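P.,

For your records, the input lines for the assembly:
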Amino acid sequence: MKYRSVFDIIGPVMIGPSSSHTAGAARIGRLARLLFGEAPTEVQIHLYGSFAKTYRGHGTDVALAGGLLDFDTFDERLPESIQLAEDQGIQLRWFEEHAVTDHPNTVRLRLKKGEREMEIVGISIGGGKVEITELNGFDLRLSGHHPAIFIVHQDRYGVIAEVSNQLAEREMNIGHMEVSRRDKGEEALMVIEVDQPVDAAVLTDLEKLDHVIQVAKIQD
Amino acid sequence: MFKNAAELIERAVMKEGSIAEVMIQQEIHEKGKTRDEVLQTMEERLDIMEQAVDRGINEDVESVSGLTGGDGKRLAAYAAKQNTLSGPVLLDAVAKAMATNEVNAAMGTICATPTAGSAGVVPGTLFAVKDQLNPTREDMVKFLFTSGAFGMVVANNASISGAAGGCQAEVGSAAGMAAAAITELAGGTPEQSGHAMAMTLKNMLGLVCDPVAGLVEVPCVKRNAAGASIALMAADMALAGIESRIPVDEVITAMYKIGENMSDDLKETARGGLAATPTGRRLETEIFNISLDRS
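C-alpha cells returned:
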C-alpha cells in the first residue's frame, strides 16, 4: 500500500500545473536539499522518461529548482525559482536522458559544493507523492510514511549498535532499517525509519558517534 | 487499512456508517492525530478549492502559453443567461471544474484531487451540488474524505498518474471519486457510492494522456468538464438504483491493465494522440519557439 493518508489523494495544496511533474518534482528537489544539508553551488539534473519529454510544459525544471531552494509545493516564489537559484549562485545544468528507467517520472540529481558531492535518484509516482530510490549509489526502499534518519558512516563493527542504542535511550522505535555499503570497511549508509518525530538533538548526538560521517533526516 | 473498495464499503456498512467516517478513522489511526486536527486539515483544503473555483469563475485567468483560460467563466455566463440544454447543475459543475483547471494551468494555487491535471472534477461537482443539496460545511469536508477514500483504493490498486496509466488514471479516477462522494452526500448507501464509482470509471477506461506541448491544458481542461458531467450522471444512475454489472474493484483492475497495455506515446509524453496532430505540433512549436523532436 503506497498510499496510506487521505491527504496524499486530496492534496497537496500546490502551485500548478502538474502534481507529479511540478509538486512531485519540487518535493524531490527539496528532499535533495535537505539531505545535502546546505545550498549547493552546482546541480546536475538528469531527467528521464516523461520528465525528460515534458519538463518544459509542466514546469518540472522550475519546480526542481524551487525544491533545491527549499521551497514547498505551494510556495508562490516557485514560478521564478530558476532565476532565484541563479541569483543565489546555484548553477543548474539540465540533461534530457534517453535511457529507459523503471518509473517514467525519474530524476537524478548531482549536488555539489566545493569538494562535497551527493547523488540522489527520485521518482514521482503520482498525485505529488515521491520516493527516493537511490542515494550516493546506495539503493533505498523507503516507505515514505514515517520520519527517516540517514546516517553516512564508516563500515566498522559497533556503529549500528551505537546508533540503535541512542534511539532506544530516547524511546524511539525503529519501524524499518536498511544498511548498505560500498565495500567491506568502506563508506556505508544506514537508513532508519522511526515511529516518533526526529528532533535536532537526536541528529546532533548521532553525529558525535565514532565513525559517523554525516546525519540527515526527512519527516514523512 | 482497507485494501480495496469491497473492504471500504463493508467497513462503512458494518461499522462506521459512512465511507467518509471510515476514511476519517483510518487517518486518525494512521497519523496519530485527533479527529479535530484531521477535519481541520481537510477544511483548509476545501478553502483552497473554493478560492480556486471563485478565481476561475470570476477573474480573467489565462495560462502563460495562452492556450487556456476564461472558458469556465464563459460557460457560467452562458448558463446564467438562458435555459440551457444540459441544465443548471450539470453546467455549473462543468464550469467550476474547468475554472479550477484553468487556474491550475495559469500556475495558480490549487489542491490536487487526486492530481493537479484532474483537480477540477471533485471541487467542480461539490460546489455545484452544494446549491442543490444545501450541505453543512462539515458535510462538504466529509465529501472530500469520501472522495479521498475511493481515490486511495485506485491509487493503491491501479494508478493515479497519467505517466503510468493515462488520463483514465487521472480524470477517470477524479470523476469516479466525485461520483461516489456525490452519491453519499445525496443520501445514497455505501454500495451505491461503489456503483457510481464503477459506472463512472467504466466510461473513462482507455482514456489516454496526450497533452499538447506537454502542457496540462489541452485537452486537460475540457476533460475535467467531461469528468464532472459523467460523475453527476453516474451518481444519479446509482441513486436511481442502477448497479454496475462489473464490481468496482474489477473495473479498477481493468483500468490498471489497460494502463499497462497503453503505449508510452499515450502516457504523458506528448508523443501521441492530440499532441501529435498537426495543430498540436504547430502550437508546440509556437509556444516554445523551437521545434522539439519527441520521436
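Two observations worth noting. The radius of gyration of chain A is 17 Å. The mean pLDDT of chain A is 92.

Regards
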